[in-house]
Structures are given as structure tokens and as C-alpha cells.
């Protein structure tokens, strides 16, 4: 069985091609999904990639949540479809209610663009099983609104339920509790601000650590087939 992973394109999406390439490098088939089509084409998982959906004119991810394709993503995600939101995709998933919290302007109000180390805080999500608990992964970060925030009750729940998936080793944007990525209650939906799709080959760097997320999702798909 060859898993089929959908990659959404919104107006302003920048990293859909990179995400599709990461999907292919992991051994799956990349399927293009258009924002205006309420059709997931029977895919086994979905990636909501980075960029500036709808120009971030209202609030990052706030308009994209109303796209026809996102209605299907929300419906299928609540039935167990693995979904990964990267950078702007993380913002979209939070706006759509699939993940708690919000992404706000970076501390210091500067755009951050550099390679960063993450700690794998949970290996129980559909997108992190291939990693070892506490492992270090090196991936790029490039965002101006990457500071993860939530109320203390939500943060405590995320911590207590093992839903913090990735943490910053050196918090570059002021995210609460160093959180770089979180999961839904069932672990099938994950959002993170850094870009694993830009860390897929040692030759182009900064590592191939990002492939672990895509391999993990394929394992989840095959396990449920």
C-alpha cells in the first residue's frame, strides 16, 4: 500500500512544494489539494503547509479556516485523519479549533529566520512516533507570528496529557513554556511552528531530521489500514 498525503494550497501558500517533496521522500504519494475545493480526494493524511494564507490580512490563518477544503479537513480530522500544520498551517489549525491556543507576534516583534534545535517532548502523536523521547532535532524556523500562547489551564492540560510534542531548546520567539508544537487530544492532529519539510536531506541541510514526522504519519496510516 502506498499512502496518499494531501498538501493544501491557499492563496499565499509558500511551502506546499517543499511539503509535497518531503511527502515523496518519505515514500508516500503527494496529492495536491486546492483551497476552494471541498474535496480531500480520499487521502490518508493531510499537510497544511506554511506561507501567508490570504496574505495574513486579517490575522494569520483566520481567513483560511473558512476555505471549503478546511471544512473537510476539520470533519475528517475529528474522525481520526492525521493532519499536520506547519507554521501558517499551525495557525490555521488553531483558528479552525483543531488545536488549542494561538500564535501571536514574536517577542521583540522581529521576524525570526534561522536553524533551531527542538526537543521531542512526546512520541505518542501520529507525527512523532519515529523519534526517541527527548531527542534533539534540527530544523529551520521562519516566522513573525510564532509565539505560542494559551491560558494556564490549557497549558497545564497540554503538559499533563502529554500533548506538547516539540519544545524549543533555545526559545527564539517567547513561546509559553518553550512550546514549539502541540497535538490534539487523540494525537492525530499536530501543529508546529518550525519547518520539518525544509530538513529532509543532509546535503541541503540543516539535517534530515524533519523526515521523522512524515515517516511517523506513514506508520500511523499503515497501522490503521
TrEMBL record:
Matching Gene3D superfamilies? 3.40.50.880
Q: Which Pfam families match?
A: GATase_5
Q: Which SMART domains match?
A: GATase_5 (SM01211)
Q: State whether keyword Acetylation applies.
A: no
Tell me the active site. Answer: 87, 195, 197
| Protein location | Cytoplasm
Name the job this protein performs.
Part of the phosphoribosylformylglycinamidine synthase complex involved in the purines biosynthetic pathway. Catalyzes the ATP-dependent conversion of formylglycinamide ribonucleotide (FGAR) and glutamine to yield formylglycinamidine ribonucleotide (FGAM) and glutamate. The FGAM synthase complex is composed of three subunits. PurQ produces an ammonia molecule by converting glutamine to glutamate. PurL transfers the ammonia molecule to FGAR to form FGAM in an ATP-dependent manner.
> In Gene Ontology terms, what is a biological process of this protein?
'de novo' IMP biosynthetic process
Subunit-structure text:
Part of the FGAM synthase complex composed of 1 PurL, 1 PurQ and 2 PurS subunits.
Record's catalysed reaction(s) = L-glutamine + H2O = L-glutamate + NH4(+); N(2)-formyl-N(1)-(5-phospho-beta-D-ribosyl)glycinamide + L-glutamine + ATP + H2O = 2-formamido-N(1)-(5-O-phospho-beta-D-ribosyl)acetamidine + L-glutamate + ADP + phosphate + H(+)
Part of which pathway? Purine metabolism; IMP biosynthesis via de novo pathway; 5-amino-1-(5-phospho-D-ribosyl)imidazole from N(2)-formyl-N(1)-(5-phospho-D-ribosyl)glycinamide: step 1/2
Q: Name one GO cellular component term.
A: cytoplasm
Entry's EC annotation = 6.3.5.3, 3.5.1.2
This protein is called Phosphoribosylformylglycinamidine synthase subunit PurQ
For this UniProt record, the keywords arranged alphabetically read as follows:
ATP-binding, Cytoplasm, Glutamine amidotransferase, Hydrolase, Ligase, Nucleotide-binding, Purine biosynthesis
GO MF, one example: phosphoribosylformylglycinamidine synthase activity
Q: Which organism is it from?
A: [Mycobacterium] manitobense
Amino acid at each position: 500500500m502506498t499512502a496518499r498525503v494531501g498538501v493544501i494550497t491557499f492563496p499565499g501558500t509558500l511551502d506546499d512544494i517543499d511539503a509535497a517533496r518531503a511527502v515523496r521522500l518519505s515514500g508516500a504519494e503527494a496529492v495536491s489539494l486546492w483551497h476552494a475545493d471541498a474535496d480531500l480526494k480520499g487521502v490518508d493524511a493531510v499537510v497544511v503547509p506554511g506561507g501567508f494564507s490570504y496574505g495574513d490580512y486579517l490575522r494569520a490563518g483566520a481567513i483560511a479556516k473558512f476555505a471549503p477544503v478546511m471544512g473537510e479537513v476539520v470533519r475528517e480530522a475529528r474522525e481520526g485523519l492525521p493532519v499536520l500544520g506547519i507554521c501558517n498551517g499551525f495557525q490555521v489549525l488553531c483558528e479552525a479549533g483543531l488545536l488549542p491556543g494561538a500564535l501571536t507576534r514574536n517577542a521583540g516583534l522581529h521576524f525570526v529566520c534561522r536553524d533551531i534545535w527542538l526537543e521531542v517532548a512526546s512520541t505518542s502523536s501520529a507525527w512523532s512516533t519515529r523519534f526517541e523521547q527527548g531527542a534533539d532535532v534540527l530544523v529551520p524556523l521562519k516566522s513573525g507570528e510564532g509565539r505560542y500562547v494559551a491560558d494556564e489551564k490549557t497549558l497545564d492540560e497540554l503538559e499533563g496529557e502529554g500533548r506538547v510534542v516539540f519544545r524549543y531548546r533555545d526559545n527564539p520567539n517567547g513561546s509559553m513554556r518553550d512550546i514549539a508544537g502541540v497535538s490534539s487530544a487523540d494525537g492525530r492532529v499536530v501543529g508546529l511552528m518550525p519547518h520539518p519539510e525544509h530538513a529532509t536531506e543532509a546535503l541541503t541541510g540543516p539535517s534530515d531530521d524533519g523526515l521523522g514526522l512524515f515517516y511517523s504519519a506513514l506508520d500511523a496510516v499503515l497501522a490503521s489500514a
